[in-house]
Amino acid sequence: MPVGHLFPTESVLVRARANVQGSQRDSASCNGGANVPTDKTLSLAEAITRHVRDGQTVALEGFGHLVPAAAAHEIIRQGVTGLTLARMTGDTLVDQLLAAGCVTKLISSFVGNSSAGSLHELRRRIEHHDPEPLEFEEYSHGGMVARYAAGAAKLPFAPIRSYTGSDLVALNPQIKSVTDPYGGGEIHVVPARRC
Questions:
Q1: Is 116 left (phi over 0), alpha (psi -120 to 50) or beta?
Q2: Average pLDDT in the 168-180 region?
Q3: Residue 52: which of 28, 76, 24 has the closest Cα?
Q4: Which superkingdom (predicted)?
Q5: Are residue 119 and residue 170 in the same domain, yes or no?
Q6: Is 149 a domain residue?
C-alpha cells in the first residue's frame, strides 16, 4: 500500500477510518454497548514497514521545513528497493534514496538544490547511466499538481493548458493532447497520480 508524502493516501485513511468504526462497533457489542476506540497510531518505522513495499510508487512531498526526510531515511534503513518516487522537487532526499539503491524511477518537475550543490547521484544516473540508468518522467510543477488533483478526485486525467508550446510534450509521452468537447480546440492532459 503506497504512502503519500509523510502520511498515508486518502484511500488508506478512509480504510483506516472504516476499520476504526468497525472495530468500535465490534467492541461495543462485546462490551455491553460501550464504545472503546482502537488506537491505530504507528511509529514511522512501523508505518513504513506496513505500507511501503519493494516496487511500489511512493510520493514524498514537502518543501523547506516540510521535506519528509525522516520517512526517506526510514525507507533507506529498511532497505526498500525498486521504488518509483514521485517528488515535485528532486533534491538531496532524492539523491540519498538513489545512492541507497531504493529508487529505479523518478517522477518529478524540478531537480536541483541550490543550497546543497549539484545532485551528484541523480546526475550520474541520468547523464552516465552509472551504476545503472534512471527512468525519469518529467512534468512541470503545474502538471504534477494537476496529476495529484486528478488522483484525489478519482479522475483518470486532468487538463492543463500551460503545456502549449512546451518541449515537455515531445519528451514525455504521458502528456497527451485531446480535443476539448466544449469547442475550445486542443488541450493537453496529464494522467492522474494516485499514490
A1: alpha
A2: 95
A3: 76
A4: Bacteria
A5: no
A6: no
Q: Same domain, yes or no, for 88 and 184?
A: no
Residue whose C-alpha is closest to residue 16's, from 40, 50, 48: 40
Domain match, 132 and 169 both: no
Do residues 26 and 87 both lie within one domain? Answer: yes
pLDDT of residue 2 exceeding 70: no
pLDDT in tens, 118-140: 899 999 999 999 999 999 999 99
Looking at the structure, do residues 62 and 92 belong to the same domain, yes or no?
yes
pTM of the full structure: 0.78
